[in-house]
Amino acid sequence: MNTISAQMDAQIRARADKLRSFYHQSDVFKKWLGYHRVRKQKLSFMRSYVENPHGASTSRLRRAYAEADILYGMTPVINDGELISGLPNHDRLTPEELKEYHELERMMKAAPDTGGLTLGHMALDYEKLLRVGISGLLDEVRERRAGLDIVGNAMEDLPKDEFYEGCEIELTALCDLADRYADYAASLAEKETDPVRKEELRTTAENFRVVPRYPAKTFHQALQCIHFYNMSLWELYYFGRVDRYLEPYYTADLKAGRITYEKAVELYTCFMLLPEAYVLPNVAIDAMLGGRDRAGNLVENDVTYAALDAIHYAHTANGKVTLAISKDTSEKLLRRAIQCNAAGLTQPALFNDDLIIEAFVRRGVSLEDARDYCNTGCAEVTPCGHSGCYVVAPYHNLMQILLDTMKQYKDGEGEKVFWKKFEETTHKAIADANTILNYRQMERSRVGAETTRASCLVHDCLESGHGIDEGGARYNYTEPNFLGFASVIDSLRVLRELVFSGEYRMADFLEILESDFAGNEVLRQRIINRIPHFGTNEQSTDDLAAAFADMLVRCCDGISNFRGVKPLIPGVFSYVEHSRFGAKTIASPDGRHAGYPLSSGSSPVQGREIKGPTAALLSSTAWKQIDYLGGVAINIKFAKGQMSGENEDKMLAFIKVFLERGGYQMQLNCIDNEVLLAAQKDPEKYADLLVRVGGFSAYFCKLPPLMQQEIIDRDVHSF
Predict the structure, then answer these.
(1) CB burial of residue 52 (10 Å; 0-12, 13-18, 19+)
(2) What pLDDT does residue 33 have?
(3) How many CB atoms lie within 10 A of CB 94?
(4) Are 713 and 607 spatial neighbours (Cβ–Cβ below 8 Å)?
(5) Which of these, 10, 199, 435, 646, has the minimum number of CB atoms within 10 Å of its CB?
(6) Which of 626, 579, 628, 632 is nearest to 601 (CA)?
(7) Cα separation, 234 vs 280, whole angstroms
(8) DSSP 634
(9) What is the pTM of this model?
(10) Could you give the CA distance from residue 92 to residue 442 in angstroms, rounded to a whole number?
(11) 318, 335, 351, 354, 602 from 325: Cα distances, Å
(12) How far is CA 311 from its chain centroid?
């Protein structure tokens, strides 16, 4: 069994605490800085794109040169204590630069509108990068480009030539940045007086001499390589199945005496912490553990456990791990995952490997590619290195759609007619939003918006000569996401009891909602306390959930994205939109006040899980989640201590029920409300307090007050 000595434990903890504290001082952690996230980098991009100093003849090449100019202009950043390096420059702009920034920003508004689609949200083929390096990618690019006939076959080959040129421009610039990092690390090593840190800096320099230009030789280099490439992309790209592709490097190092398990934990801890310095708050860059390899073999090795051990040291909201589990996952691994969550670390989230693989195969994904999936956002999943999919495209406010349908209803028409109108209204809302997105996708196909170097690690882009934005990836489906799932189920049950029964006229009930239940608190309390809710394992309400879920799937059928791929693939999870949408939505039939957040993900409405965690789980898995590859999130909050000790066995059984019932993803909070209330009163004392919000985790004290309250309002369960 792998253990960590007391001495090494103290060393890792001290290094992690130092780095976390330092990273949290960065501007990117404090505020949202917009496109390319960091103003120094954005300024460089806009200068190049607007002024076009390279004389690029197309929008795509103009963008490729602008991306390259960011990299050429970046100053190497190596912070004290880092074992893995590479971060954007967070220096503030001078007054002159700020003036230029705002002027260029104004001019950039004339650029083609490619917004409205989620950038990134895919896992790249980092296994290939580690195997061949950028030099290997460049060799492939140049070989394929040399085989084109842009004179005699211009219509077909000229766009490919443009793509390959963009690849070469960006990849060359990234190698140049790595070279400057190597030189900078070497110069720091020369000046360093502490012998331990001197050696660490020499290793950093040596690593940058190798990666990402050449294939990785060691576990340390592999981590450095994938971080550096990923950091350079600016958007949310995910690390994929790290314990699968990092394991050969770890094993080789172990046999050669170059590494120990403890050192692997320390390195992975540093790797996990880096996103704290360059990823926006309330998002996360995940890596997935466990599951199966492409041949179907279970993945569970030292790297799996090293990453789970690193969670305790990193204590991070942004760099996260998730775990693919199945009926075949070892009890040892499940218990380790439970122990991480029991410590209040809010990770790993648990994905049902068997269900997700089957769901992909049903959607036309090959079995090998289906096994090679990864979560690429809060809860959504896509095939690693094969995806050009658009996720959360867009978010839909289900409660608003329900309210709009209520306005169309004529008293006496009955529940069946209402459902028909509800389905028609929902389908139209989805189709209309999808058409807008298709126009933007069409424009992106013309001018590009994704970094070209991202396409270099997505099959079949290099093979076809077309980037992600041109549909070059193997899989190109679109995933709209639906907010307020449980809020709508409870509302439908209320309408059945109060309106379709004839007790209230629909128009009168709408007036009550528009007044936010003013003068009708007795009615509101009746709704909350007397009418059955989703989350209590009450059959008729769970049947409503199943019917509603089937309706959403039907509403996505027959709708095509710009690539001609259909149907749309729905998701039911929350980022922060359940709060944002709730703030703009009047009171709802389920007793929710105007402005309050909608239900989170597929979990029951906040405060309605009154019959305990098992009943909540049974309701939350009472509908077919296999149709929802766009993401499903069951978020369950346990009191402190309810996942540890003798309760660990109960938690293990709970997870097995989740698997057997066909649950998609489970997220766990382990915290007492007393702690959350204390954190509200004294935020400085609880600065590192983590909570699972939706598909992401956050530092509780940095959340807006309304979202803090929503988390407090969620039911706290005990076995």
Answers:
(1) middle
(2) 39
(3) 10
(4) yes
(5) 646
(6) 632
(7) 10
(8) E
(9) 0.95
(10) 36
(11) 22, 12, 6, 8, 20
(12) 17
CB 452 within 8 A of CB 71: no
d(CA 371, CA 360): 9
3-state secondary structure of 141: helix
Region for 14 from its dihedrals, namely left if φ exceeds 0, alpha if ψ lies in -120 to 50, beta otherwise? alpha
Q: In sequence order, which residues have a C-beta less than 8 Å from that of residue 192 and are 6 or more positions away?
A: 198, 201
Contact by Cβ (8 Å): 354, 360: no
The rounded distance, in Å, linking the Cα atoms of 119 and 108 is 18
| Structure tokens, 391 | 């996720």
Q: What is the pLDDT of residue 32?
A: 37
What residues have CB less than 8 Å from 145, skipping those under 6 apart? Answer: 160, 161, 164, 165, 168
Closest by CA position to 225, among listed 236, 233, 213: 213
- Sort strands 349-352 and 665-670 into parallel, antiparallel or unpaired: antiparallel
> How many CB atoms neighbour CB 571 within 10 A?
30
Contact 353, 290 (CB under 8 A): yes
Q: Dihedrals φ, ψ of 352, to 5°?
A: -80, 100
CA 458/CA 463 separation, integer angstroms: 10
What is the DSSP-derived secondary structure letter of residue 623? S
Write out the DSSP string of 374-421: EE-SSS-EEETTTB-PBPS-SEEEHHHHHHHHHHH--TTS-HHHHHHH
Question: Is there a cis peptide before residue 567, judged by omega within 30 degrees of 0?
Answer: yes
Q: How far is CA 522 from the centre of its chain?
A: 41
- Torsion sign (Cα): 589, 591, 596, 597: negative
- For 39, the token pair is 């103003």
Q: What gap in Å lies between CA 691 and CA 275, rounded to an integer?
A: 17
Judge residue 57's burial from the number of C-beta atoms within 10 Å of its C-beta, 0-12 exposed, 13-18 middle, 19 or more buried: exposed
Q: DSSP 3-state assignment of 304?
A: helix
Strand partners, 298: 292
Cβ-Cβ contacts under 8 Å for 234 (sequence gap 6 or more): 36, 37, 41, 451
Determine the pLDDT at residue 116.
59
**Residue given tokens 């934005």 in the structure block:** 469
All residue ranges of the chain with pLDDT < 70 are: 1, 26-38, 115-119
Q: Per the structure block, which two tokens stand in for 243?
A: 């314990």
The candidate with the shortest Cα–Cα distance to 282, out of 711, 713, 702, 571, is: 702
Do residues 533 and 541 lie in contact, with contact meaning Cβ atoms separated by under 8 Å? yes
For CA atoms 268, 274, 275, 281, the dihedral sign is: positive
CA neighbor of 97 nearest in space, from 35, 144, 46: 46
**Angle CA 557–559–562, to nearest 5:** 145
Q: E strands of 40-141, at which residues?
A: 122-123
262, 293 Cβ separation under 8 angstroms? no
502-551 pLDDT, tens per residue?
999 999 999 999 999 999 999 999 999 999 999 999 999 999 999 999 99
Helices (H), 147-236: 154-191, 195-210, 219-231
What is the C-alpha to C-alpha distance for residues 499 and 344, in angstroms, rounded to an integer?
43
Residue pair 61/446 in contact (Cβ under 8 Å)? The answer is no
> Which pLDDT tens digit goes with each residue over 79-119?
999 999 999 877 778 889 989 999 999 999 888 777 656 66
CA distance 384 to 63: 25
Please answer whether residues 387 and 122 qualify as being in contact, where contact means their C-beta atoms are separated by less than 8 angstroms.
Answer: yes
